[in-house]
Amino acid sequence: MMSFISPIFTRNQVQQCLTDTAVGVGDCAIETRDLTIFYGDFCAVRDINLHVELRKITAFIGPSGCGKSTVLRAFNRMNDLIPTARVEGAVLLGGQNIYAPEVDAVEVRRRVGMVFQKPNPFPKSIYENIAWGARINGYRGNLDELVERTLRHAALWDEVKDKLQQSALALSGGQQQRLCIARAIAIEPEIILMDEPASALDPIATLRIEELMRTLAQEYTIIVVTHNMQQAARVSDYTAFFMVDEHRAGYMIEQGPTREIFTNPKDKRTEDYITGRFG
């Protein structure tokens, strides 16, 4: 196991504020209760009640503008970075509301990693892309071992082991995205958020990312936003379907095992979206 010292909390404070996040509560890794998010006076999403299963892949699907990414960003408090954003309701991580006053957003983001739509490696070496985050989080182990272990975990080691000191920006798009995934898991989060992680990649690179996701799900809880119905059907264990109401606020229609959502949805609107009748 890695040895980290939180730069914000003492060990006791971390345990008090984010109790048992590594195992979740029962089989639930994270859940929302009446989650509603505003940007100024505009209600972006409303009344979201969902639970995310531990060490499974959950896909968020739905038409553009229905709040999928907004909900995703709420899971590691990235909406806090938007000055006009306001959150109502609760997001429970290990049974603790991550929006409670005593919980620090930096610590939440260490436990809930993020991979963005467009690969965004640091303008540093491949080695430093992995080592930097661990270093600033107080990692005291052998950084060389950490870099190798993490790159192996991201199925990238064999491709980059002889060029660790080269710029990460010289990698292909698919390699850059796998490096970003490696960077996210280097600090051992419990949950990995992925916002359309393969949308900018070619089909071969997309397949590599999907294979990596299935491998990582053995150890991590993964939540992925995707517009690709085939991808959701291929990689996810559970699916949540979102739509937009007459006021342009996103809300969740239903969630459940992916096989059921795609073959026997409870709501006709879900069937219409999946079969391409609208959206």
Task: Please outline what is shown here.
The protein has 279 residues and is an alpha/beta fold.
Word description of this protein:
The strands form two sheets. The protein has a six-stranded mixed β-sheet, with helices on both faces. Strands 1, 2, 3, 5 and 6 form a five-stranded antiparallel β-sheet that branches. Strand 10 and strand 11 form a beta hairpin. The longest helix is centred in the last third of the chain and has 14 residues, at 203-216. It has one domain (11-274): Rossmann fold. Helices cover 34% and strands 24% of the residues. Helix 4 (126-136) packs across helix 5. The chain has 279 residues and is α/β, with parallel strands linked by helices.
* Strand neighbour order, sheet with most strands: 7-8-9-4-10-11
By secondary-structure content and strand pairing, the structural class works out as: alpha/beta
Number of helical elements? 11
Number of strands: 11
The end-to-end span amounts to: 45 Å
Q: The biggest beta sheet, please?
A: 6 strands, mixed
CATH fourth-tier homologous superfamily: P-loop containing nucleotide triphosphate hydrolases
Q: What would you call the shape?
A: globular
Beta-strand share of residues: 15-25%
Average the pLDDT over all residues and give the rounded result: 90
Roughly how many Å is the radius of gyration? 19 Å
Fraction of residues in helix? 25-40%
Number of domains: 1
Low-confidence stretches: 1-26
